[in-house]
Amino acid sequence: MIDKDFLLTTNTAKWLFHDVAAHLPIVDYHNHLDPKEIYENKNYGSITDVWLGGDHYKWRAMRAAGVDEERITGGADEKGKFDAFAETMPKLFGNQLLHWTQLELRTFFCIDRFLSPESADEIYEQTNEALKEEALRPRNILSSQKVKFLGTTDDPTDSLEYHRLLKEDETFDVHVAPSFRPDKAIAIDAPDYGRWLDRLEEAVGFEVDSYGKFMEAMKKRIVFFDEMGCRASDHGINEMFYEEATEDEMEEVFDKVLAKEAVSRMEVDKFKTYTLTSLAKEYHAHGWVMQLHIGPLRNNNTRMFERTGADSGFDSINDKLVAEPLSRFLDAIDRTDELPKTVLYTLNPRDNIIMATMAGNFQSGDIPGKVQFGTAWWFNDNYDGMMDQMKTLANAGAFKTFIGMLTDSRSMLSFTRHEYFRRILCELLGQWAESGMVPDDADLLKEYVEDICYNNAKNYFGLEN
Q1: Could you tell me the pTM of the whole model?
Q2: CB-neighbour burial class of residue 258 (10 A; exposed 0-12, middle 13-18, buried 19+)
């Protein structure tokens, strides 16, 4: 199904991919990989574990195809779950999962057959046998994919034990860095917020009995993350907020939280706004990148949430308005010239042009593309979504400063998503060049590919190589 010219329809696109993009290293600056998995470097148990163990993309597709939950997240055996996914694949024409799956089969297992009920037994046996080999241990996968940098996703209370061990391992040259994800820190209306505060106190070694102490603790964790090689923060924002507040108000709100008193929606938004703007200034001081992932509507199905928990495929796209609160938020930080490098991601493609134009409001002469309209995310990281995101960015900004792709994945096999993105990028540039929309200048086109696929991200995140 996937030949060497997959998705490439012009001679320019084929040249750009095969001679330029295919050989470039990878900076995967946002993912959900487990650093323990990388450090321990053990063989994977089965293809079912690797593919279906925590992949809500696949779970969601399997449900849509009519697979019973027992064969998705339930008690069915590994072969039964694999067969259920194989039954689903022929129903996914137009879905990026079909392309991702076939790319992974080809890249890591040298399998060109289409996964289907007819090929399932053979592919199951062949992949499981290959997973016993040294080449498919986590570190060798990273090396074979030319990964130079990984940015994982980590709570402020995490010990970062395995980041430290990897950093100290001189035999391993991939930079596995934590990313500071303080979503739970600002979720003061969450039922388990008190338990999270207990973990924060344990991490910093002192009592967090006031808002001032809370911010002291957060700053201490930022310093710790920085020492462990952190280059970015990351924030999941279901609905963009902005409500001005004072520090005195924050003390009052935090006292209510400590006393387990109810807080209003206005108080929650004030707390989030004041805290996140304060944290952003700390990121700026440390030279970090701030990533804002905006727009999911989470846990829509109560019955299934109670059965399978969060992040199991029952989230969708939110349609709350974003432009005004996002503008006010960024402006509040920028007023004192402390806005960090910032990446804006939207889950709602309706807001692509909002994000692209918002980024243009806060650029800086000393950092090309200081505020980025981030790559197509989640429901959008498919062929059409990537094309639309890149065209929108090009229409409204400076395309050559784009920092490119990330996996946003929990699977070690997902690095083929960079190949998928690079093929689409080269196809877009090839179309433009051969239709006369841009100069048919080989050197300039080559620079575009090298910068968007690797150089820009390397420089943006301050990496050494």
Answers
A1: 0.97
A2: middle
